[in-house]
Amino acid sequence: MVGDQPTNGRQVLRASSVFKSYGDTAALQGVTLEVRAGESLAVMGPSGCGKSTLLQTLAGITLPNAGEVTYAGQEGVQNLVLLDDETRAALRAREFGFVFQQGLLLDELNAAENVAVPLMVDRLSPSDAIARAGQLLAQVGLGGLDDRRIGQLSGGQAQRIAIARAIVSNASVVFADEPTGALDSHTAGDVLELLLASTVRQHRALVMVTHDESVARRCSRIARMSDGRVISDVRVTS
Ligand SMILES: Nc1ncnc2c1ncn2[C@@H]1O[C@H](COP(=O)(O)OP(=O)(O)OP(=O)(O)O)[C@@H](O)[C@H]1O
Ligand SMILES: [Mg+2]
């Protein structure tokens, strides 16, 4: 069980007193949270409480109105809030991976091309990127499906491709927003297992929004939110 593993890795991400509003809506109202290497953090709470906003803020996709988000990566410790858009986008492409409910895969590309996108962004040659993508597809149990269009895959297969894409460029943090939300419980279990195996067990950090208690209990920590605040943050001990 992942929950049994110690989560005393080095701190990779820290949100400090983060506030974010959209017009009159206060989505985050002073969130302080840290994420360590090798841990899996489930973020839970009712619809609209700010989970996706927190995930996107930790990932440097959304900028907070106040507060800091520090990330300890290849360039040392940086406050993502202070980086310009281009530098932040490059850091995201290089060091973060993303898996969302609908996968956000590109329908017009095949499986291997989708996985290869982050490598090409990272300036690997297309042929090297496709070759590396093929290895990753085999690793997530989809060997031989390299040429398959996304529309010709099952939901579970598409999520495996999203996971392969998230980890292909050696991301040190993988962000997942309801990655199993659209899957039946059996497929969801398989996808979750793959997500944990490809992140936590390789000393990456996983930050995952989920509505499913059984999914959250397989993570090493659960943070619960309400009205833009973290109201509890506990280790999973079972
Ligand atoms: N781009 C946006 N523009 C305006 N309001 C937004 C935007 N994104 C989020 N919000 C608002 O901020 C609040 C928090 O939204 P968020 O998406 O973080 O919630 P959530 O916890 O992820 O909900 P769910 O479980 O439904 O996905 C909500 O009231 C939402 O309506
Ligand atoms: Mg959400």
From TrEMBL:
<keyword id="KW-0547">Nucleotide-binding</keyword>
<dbReference type="InterPro" id="IPR017911">
    <property type="entry name" value="MacB-like_ATP-bd"/>
</dbReference>
<protein>
    <submittedName>
        <fullName>Putative ABC transport system ATP-binding protein</fullName>
    </submittedName>
</protein>
<dbReference type="GO" id="GO:0005524">
    <property type="term" value="F:ATP binding"/>
</dbReference>
<dbReference type="GO" id="GO:0005886">
    <property type="term" value="C:plasma membrane"/>
</dbReference>
<dbReference type="InterPro" id="IPR027417">
    <property type="entry name" value="P-loop_NTPase"/>
</dbReference>
<dbReference type="InterPro" id="IPR015854">
    <property type="entry name" value="ABC_transpr_LolD-like"/>
</dbReference>
<keyword id="KW-0813">Transport</keyword>
<dbReference type="InterPro" id="IPR017871">
    <property type="entry name" value="ABC_transporter-like_CS"/>
</dbReference>
<dbReference type="InterPro" id="IPR003439">
    <property type="entry name" value="ABC_transporter-like_ATP-bd"/>
</dbReference>
<feature type="domain" description="ABC transporter">
    <location>
        <begin position="13"/>
        <end position="236"/>
    </location>
</feature>
<dbReference type="InterPro" id="IPR003593">
    <property type="entry name" value="AAA+_ATPase"/>
</dbReference>
<keyword id="KW-0067">ATP-binding</keyword>
<dbReference type="Pfam" id="PF00005">
    <property type="entry name" value="ABC_tran"/>
</dbReference>
<dbReference type="GO" id="GO:0022857">
    <property type="term" value="F:transmembrane transporter activity"/>
</dbReference>
<dbReference type="GO" id="GO:0016887">
    <property type="term" value="F:ATP hydrolysis activity"/>
</dbReference>
